[in-house]
Task: inverse folding
């Protein structure tokens, strides 16, 4: 067996017990040069219940973007809610993604070895046996789809964003699938085959009575757009159904269906013949989100963030006070901005404003990464006592409660 080059970094930010790991796995007979796996385990999790895998697509920019996936604050919030780890990848190809998108040609074995190495180094041996949730974009969607066909017993659900080269198959029909597509893909020379083959493959599975939902986005093409707003909602609902028993068959008789042509919603299945024109949904709440998404390309959020920032620390640094904190993103719409209060007055405005960039790239990964947040208050006076609190806005503009106060 070839020597495994293992690179491990365990980060313990102040006041935080979350852990980050990375391992590099050589191909060992596969076509790709190597793959690096990244995993984030939430703070204070004694037993990890599963792994959310965020799999990038094809091309050098996708491989580089994949390195940021496990830093994503909104996906981390989903993982933390269910005591899951969040895993990202970065493949180095010899020529193109065809050397890794087929799991049975080496990438599955590398995936298992990567998890095993992280399990040992993190002292979370349970990682080797927990179920998976798969998300994949483009060629990564093809990889995730093939994983469903080959290893359905390990997969709770999968989200396929524009899965390239999707084949018709009736394997793994018990695995719930969400297939996200950009409407512009259907007319784009580059990606029209992606749209047509994905629709054909998903409708074939629907005709086989599989729990499949197709979600065309009117505002995007092959890029990820705002698809995460529906993807995260889908995974959250599926975990409510399946986490207690990953082998459970989804009970379609209690579900909601929407005709892909008329968008007609019904929960009465009597007299309905199963056909590839019916979309499956885990519940009525998700069906309403789906209907909004396919009409607008987004999902609205009417509730403020559930939790304020936490682990707030404060230290003096010369003529400034440095405030640091952690925050879980709003599960529905992420983080848009932070608000810093000094003695109950908002201070990060005007020339003192600090900008946090939570933009998402083409591949659904963060452009900037944050493992801890910081604000430097330079407008302080000697021998004066200060109180600081932080809140944040989600992308709907709704504000969380303020954090516990810290003083200096």
Result:
């Amino acid at each position: 067996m070839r020597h495994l080059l293992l690179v491990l970094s365990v980060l313990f930010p102040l006041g935080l017990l979350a852990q980050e790991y990375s391992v590099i796995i050589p191909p060992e007979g596969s076509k790709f040069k190597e793959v690096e796996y990244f995993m984030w385990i939430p703070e204070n999790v004694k037993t990890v219940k599963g792994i959310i895998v965020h799999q990038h697509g094809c091309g050098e920019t996708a491989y580089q973007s994949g390195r940021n996936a496990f830093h994503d604050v909104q996906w981390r919030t989903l993982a933390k809610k269910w005591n899951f780890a969040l895993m990202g990848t970065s493949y180095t190809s010899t020529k193109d993604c065809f050397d890794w998108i087929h799991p049975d040609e080496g990438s599955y074995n590398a995936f298992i070895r990567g998890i095993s190495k992280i399990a040992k180094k993190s002292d979370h041996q349970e990682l080797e046996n927990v179920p998976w949730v798969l998300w994949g974009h483009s060629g990564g969607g093809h990889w995730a789809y093939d994983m469903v066909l080959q290893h359905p017993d390990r997969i709770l659900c999968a989200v396929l964003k524009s899965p390239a080269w999707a084949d018709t198959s009736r394997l793994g029909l018990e695995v719930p699938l969400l297939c996200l597509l950009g409407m512009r893909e259907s007319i784009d020379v580059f990606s029209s085959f992606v749209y047509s083959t994905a629709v054909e493959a998903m409708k074939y599975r629907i005709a086989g009575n599989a729990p499949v939902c197709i979600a065309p986005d009117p505002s995007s093409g092959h890029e990820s757009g705002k698809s995460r707003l529906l993807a995260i909602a889908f995974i959250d609902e599926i975990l409510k159904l399946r986490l207690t028993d990953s082998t459970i068959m989804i009970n379609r008789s209690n579900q909601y269906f929407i005709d892909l042509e008329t968008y007609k919603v019904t929960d009465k299945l009597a007299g309905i013949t199963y056909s590839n024109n019916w979309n499956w949904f885990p519940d009525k709440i998700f069906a309403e989100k789906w209907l909004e998404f396919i009409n607008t390309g987004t999902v609205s959020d009417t509730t403020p963030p559930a939790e304020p920032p936490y682990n707030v620390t404060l230290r003096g640094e010369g003529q400034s006070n440095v405030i640091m904190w952690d925050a879980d993103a709003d599960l529905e719409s992420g983080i848009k901005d932070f608000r810093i209060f000094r003695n109950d007055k908002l201070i990060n405005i005007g020339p003192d404003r600090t900008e946090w960039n939570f933009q998402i790239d083409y591949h659904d990964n963060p452009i900037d990464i944050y493992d801890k947040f910081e604000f430097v208050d330079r407008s302080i006076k000697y021998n004066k006592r200060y109180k600081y609190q932080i809140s944040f806005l989600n992308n709907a503009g709704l504000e969380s409660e303020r954090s516990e106060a810290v003083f200096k």
Observations:
- The two ends are 57 Å apart (CA to CA).
- The chain has seven helices and 18 strands.
- The helical segments are 60-65, 73-81, 107-122, 139-150, 192-207, 228-242, 284-296.
- The chain has two domains: 19-296, 310-407.
